[in-house]
Design goal:
The complex is a heterodimer of chains A (261) and B (324). Chain A is an alpha/beta fold. Helices cover 35% and strands 13% of the residues of chain A. Chain A has a single domain, classed as Rossmann fold (3-Layer(aba) Sandwich), CATH 3.40.50. Chain A is globular. Chain B folds into two domains: 166 residues, Thiamin diphosphate (ThDP)-binding fold, Pyr/PP domains (Rossmann fold), CATH 3.40.50.970; 127 residues, Rossmann fold. Helices cover 37% and strands 21% of the residues of chain B. Chain B contains twelve helices and 14 strands. A seven-stranded mixed sheet of chain B has the order 3-2-4-5-7-6-12, sandwiched between helices. In chain B, strands 9-11-10-13-14 form a five-stranded mixed sheet, with helices on both faces. A two-stranded antiparallel sheet of chain B has the order 1-8. In chain B, strand 2, helix 2 and strand 3 form a beta-alpha-beta unit. In chain B, helix 8 crosses helix 12. The radius of gyration of chain B is 19 Å and the shape is globular. The chains are: A alpha/beta (261), B alpha/beta (324). At the A-B interface, helix 4 and helix 5 of A face helix 3 and helix 5 of B.
Chain lengths: 261, 324
């Protein structure tokens, strides 16, 4: 997709694929067709770091929200698959626009509180980049969730240690994230974002904590560009597209994806 | 002389703040529709949201001094069918949270009602940090956004209640000081339709918010001199009722716009664009001219910055000198 559009964000997309596949194909109860904006009786997912849209679109299409063939229109004129997720074109599966960072947690908490008001016991999941935690709104939302005892939310942080200008430790150090979230009143879990068993463990742990009045955050260790050796673990592939040779080299490393882009 | 469907009295004795009209309207909205929720950023008393909070504590959300989060929460609550009304000062309802409104509310077309008090110079003594004069422009520029600015207590209550049945993002602007209640509580009110408060063929008045009462007073003074103004209350700035303006200006050929806002970007900009495109006419603009406000009483500030009936009369004289 990113290669086809000659633009996009492959690094973070590859790093979060395992989690979002796990959520949509195992944990979450969703009704892809017909898509309902309110999602009553459904678990909801909000991608706050909207730039990794290629991954989300790929998962949504394969989960049945829209045809897989439509992935080829990503970032092209008149597409429903905008560069960053949007509702304007009516793409099923998207409930709010994201891209300008730091806004998704607030929106997800609003949706979680609406579920509480409606007596809907489903869960709201969110995903954020670690660099995104530099945005102040995240911490406004974190404070709010603990104060209002919103425990039907589970937020995942993509801890790949990278952002556009380089390693987070060089750009603006995030410090001790576990201590920060804990100080804001959240239950902090950690896991390996590329180990399905470990993801399964933290999701079950988060589910078991429902009723505690404490929101849950999962600090998920990931590698940016996961699965492609020349993309892995570096910020250089945050926001650029592979050329023909690089694409062929990458797909050769992941036999399951041969011919599927 | 005045249209009695709209105007209750040209010598009103009762004064109230428009924000109290919002508070009363929100309470009624909450009674009529159990999906209505209120969010406030530590200004519950100032926004007059206490009555709603006391009547529906489970539907009221105190968010603290965190307006960006409030806008996101409100957007999220619409996912699940809620009709959120956010409350804080106009400054913190717009400039402070422009990107949150743009992405999470306007672009996402969420059914959020952004209710903003203490707009403009009449906030008074707190000074320019809080006296936003750019908010109408910022909000009117956003696709999907409806912009409403009400004239008195009764109209603010009416508009607040009307928002329940209006789907889509809305910016509702009102103010802090007590101002005359001159509009009927059951006046015909339709979002997007200007109110023709007084009829005349000499000059068209286009006013919004606190300047509507000033425009009525100016028109009454001009009548004594034989000048008949066609006075419009543009409570809805976007979508703009172009048809009413064009029809009037075809008869008058002259326009005075009055608003408690910067000249740039507000109602006057929309009027000027509409005139230029459809019905070129001479126009004067009673508004703040590229300045920040300052501390003072509301009346002092409105006089110093030229936003009152006298200023509208003077603008009318200027526009009427160019007969042709």
């Amino acid at each position: 997709m990113v290669h086809g559009a000659s633009s996009g964000h492959p690094g973070g997309s590859l790093g979060c694929t395992d989690l979002v596949v796990k959520l949509y194909f195992d944990r979450m109860h969703v009704v892809p067709e017909p898509f309902n904006m309110d999602g009553a009786g459904e678990d909801l997912f909000f991608l706050s770091n909207g730039h990794i849209s290629p991954m989300w679109y790929s998962v949504l299409a394969r989960r049945g929200y829209f045809p897989v063939a439509e992935l080829a229109t990503f970032r092209k004129l008149n597409t429903r698959l905008q560069g960053h997720p949007a509702t304007e074109e009516g793409l099923p599966g998207i409930r709010v626009a994201s891209g300008s960072l730091g806004q998704g947690l607030s929106v997800a908490l609003g949706a979680a509180q609406a579920k509480q008001l409606n007596g809907d016991d489903r869960t709201v999941f969110t995903l954020h980049g670690d660099g995104e935690l530099q945005e102040g709104q995240i911490w406004e939302a974190a404070m709010y969730a603990a104060h209002h005892r919103i425990d039907n939310i589970v937020s995942f942080i993509d801890c790949n240690g990278q952002q556009i200008d380089g390693p987070t430790d060089d750009v603006l150090s995030l410090g001790d994230l576990a201590a920060k979230w804990s100080a804001f009143g959240w239950r902090v879990l950690t896991c390996n974002g590329h180990d399905f068993e470990d993801l399964d463990r933290v999701i079950k742990e988060a589910d078991a904590a429902r009723g505690s009045g404490i929101p849950t955050v999962v600090l998920m260790e990931t590698a940016m560009g996961r699965g492609v050796d020349f993309m892995e673990g570096t910020h250089h592939w945050h926001g650029i597209a592979p050329n023909d040779e690089q694409l062929a080299a990458a797909l050769a490393q992941i036999p399951e994806t041969l011919g599927d882009y | 002389m005045v249209d009695s469907r709209f105007i209750s009295s040209t010598t009103p004795t009762e004064k109230k703040d428009t924000r109290s009209g919002f508070g009363a309207g929100l309470l009624e909205a909450g009674r009529r529709n159990d999906q209505v929720v209120g969010l406030c950023a530590d200004l519950t008393g100032s926004l007059k949201m206490n009555a709603f909070k006391d009547a529906f504590p489970e539907r009221f959300f105190q968010v603290g001094i965190a307006e960006a989060n409030m806008m996101g929460l409100a957007a999220g609550m619409t996912i699940g069918g809620k009709i959120p009304f956010t409350g804080t000062f106009a400054n913190f309802s717009t400039g402070r949270v422009y990107d949150q409104i743009r992405q999470s509310i306007a672009y996402s077309d969420k059914n959020v009602k952004i209710c903003a008090s203490h707009a403009g110079l009449t906030l008074g003594e707190d000074g320019a940090t809080h006296q936003i004069l750019e908010d109408i422009g910022m909000m009117a520029m956003l696709p999907n956004m409806t912009v409403i600015c009400t004239a008195d207590y009764n109209q603010t209550k009416q508009a607040t209640e009307a928002l329940v049945d209006h789907h889509g993002p809305v910016y509702l602007r009102f103010g802090r000081p007590s101002v005359p209640i001159f509009l009927k509580e059951d006046a015909p009110f339709t979002i997007g339709k200007a109110q023709n408060l007084m009829s005349g063929n000499d000059v068209t008045f286009v006013a919004t918010g606190h300047l509507v009462w000033e425009a009525v007073q100016a028109a009454l003074a001009l009548r004594e001199r034989g000048i008949h103004a066609d006075v419009f209350n543009y409570h809805t700035i976007k979508p703009f009722d172009a048809a009413a303006l064009i029809e009037s200006v075809k008869r008058t050929g002259r326009v005075v716009v009055a608003e408690e806002h910067q000249k740039a970007g507000g109602l006057g900009s929309i009027v000027a664009r509409t005139l230029a495109e459809h019905q070129p006419a001479r126009m004067e603009h009673v508004a703040v001219d590229d300045q920040f406000g300052e501390s003072g009483t509301p009346a002092q500030l409105m006089e110093k910055y030229g936003l009152n009936a006298e200023a509208i009369v003077a603008a009318s004289e200027r526009v009427l000198q160019v007969r042709g």
